[in-house]
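Technical annex, item 7. During the second reporting period the consortium partners agreed on a shared format for inverse folding records so that results from different sites could be compared directly. Each record opens with the tokenized structure and is followed by the designed sequence. A conforming record, contributed by the partner at site C, is shown below for reference.
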């Protein structure tokens, strides 16, 4: 993470919002997977503040995943709903598929089985349109386990 932080600091000096927003999103996601939820929220928030349309869906997905992991379900719902809306507007099918997947996971946590099934089905359909069969199959296995 130290090397990545140094790279991010170098990118900040360029003042190139597009790159900075992407790096903030990536840093947030890395911190999420490391279990550093406060840092994940911090970096996702910084990415969102940059308002780079192409990175907004992913930043909101990272935010929603982190909020879900912190049991902030209402906030996670808002973040993932925004990710779905923006990804739909920008026609970013990959982000849209991921956002539906994460919304499905949120619905599972909320014990909303039918809503989870609907969201996961949306995600499977999109991943198959993107020829990402491994991801679709993984989500389908999750769906079948409900």
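Designed sequence (site C submission):
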């Amino acid at each position: 993470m130290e090397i990545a932080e140094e790279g991010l600091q170098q990118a900040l000096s360029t003042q190139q919002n597009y790159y900075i927003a992407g790096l903030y999103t990536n840093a947030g996601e890395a911190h999420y997977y490391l279990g550093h939820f406060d840092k994940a929220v911090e970096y996702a928030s910084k990415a969102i503040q940059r308002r780079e349309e192409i990175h907004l869906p992913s930043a909101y997905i990272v935010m929603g995943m982190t909020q879900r992991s912190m049991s902030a379900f209402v906030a996670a719902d808002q973040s993932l709903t925004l990710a779905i809306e923006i990804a739909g507007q920008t026609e970013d099918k990959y982000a849209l598929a991921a956002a539906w997947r994460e919304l499905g996971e949120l619905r599972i946590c909320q014990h909303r089985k039918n809503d989870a099934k609907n969201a996961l089905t949306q995600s499977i359909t999109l991943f198959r349109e993107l020829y990402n069969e491994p991801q679709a199959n993984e989500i389908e296995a999750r769906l079948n386990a409900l």
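The longest helix spans residues 17-34. The radius of gyration is 15 Å. All partners now use this format for quarterly exchanges.
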